[in-house]
Write a structure and sequence with these properties.
The structure is a single chain. This protein has about 150 residues and is an all-alpha fold. Helices cover about 45% and strands about 0% of the residues. It has six helices and no strands. Helix 3 crosses helix 4, helix 4 crosses helix 5 and helix 5 crosses helix 6. About 25% of the residues have low confidence.
C-alpha cells in the first residue's frame, strides 16, 4: 500500500491526468484506499473462476502442450486452484514436471549397479509411482498426475 503522501501525489495526477495516461490500480485491501482516490476511479470487482471453467482451460492447455490430463485430474487441479486460474496452471505445470522427471529404473525394469534398483534422492521424487524403493508420500495432486 502507498503512504499518505504518496496517495496525495497520486490524487494530484488523477485530478488532472495527461490525455495519454491511464492508471490501473489493483488491491485486495480496498478499505485502505482513501475515499478521495476511490471517488475518481471506476471499480471492477473480480470473482473467482468456477472449477468447471478452470478444468476446461487446464484440459485445453494440457492438450496444446502435449500433456496427458485425465478428466478427474483436471477436476482435482481445478478444485485445488480455488478459483485462481494462475494457481491451476501452476499446479498443472508441477504435475507435468513430476511426470516427466527421470525415474529410478528400479521398478520399470531398469536396475542400478549390481542388478539392484537404482537409488534416488532422499525425498523420493524421482521414483516411479508405486516404487518400492521410495517411502515418500505423494501429494494428492501428484497422485493424479501419475495417472496421466
Amino acid at each position: 500500500m502507498l503512504s499518505t503522501p504518496a496517495f496525495n501525489a497520486l490524487l494530484k495526477i488523477l485530478e488532472e491526468p495527461p490525455e495519454h495516461l491511464m492508471f490501473i490500480l489493483a488491491t485486495t485491501e480496498l478499505h485502505k484506499v482513501p475515499a478521495t482516490i476511490l471517488s475518481r476511479c471506476q471499480r471492477f470487482s473480480f470473482k473467482r473462476i468456477t472449477p468447471q471453467d478452470i478444468a476446461s482451460r487446464l484440459t485445453y492447455v494440457a492438450g496444446q502442450e502435449g500433456i496427458a490430463l485425465a478428466p478427474d485430474g483436471a477436476e482435482l487441479l481445478s478444485r485445488l486452484a480455488d478459483g485462481a486460474l494462475r494457481d491451476g496452471l501452476s499446479l498443472l505445470d508441477q504435475c507435468a514436471a513430476v511426470r516427466a522427471a527421470p525415474r529410478c529404473g528400479g521398478c520399470a525394469g531398469g536396475a542400478g549397479p549390481g542388478g539392484k534398483p537404482a537409488d534416488g534422492p532422499a525425498d523420493g521424487t524421482d521414483f516411479e509411482p508405486g516404487c518400492k524403493s521410495s517411502s515418500a508420500a505423494v501429494e494428492p495432486a501428484f497422485t493424479v498426475a501419475a495417472r496421466m
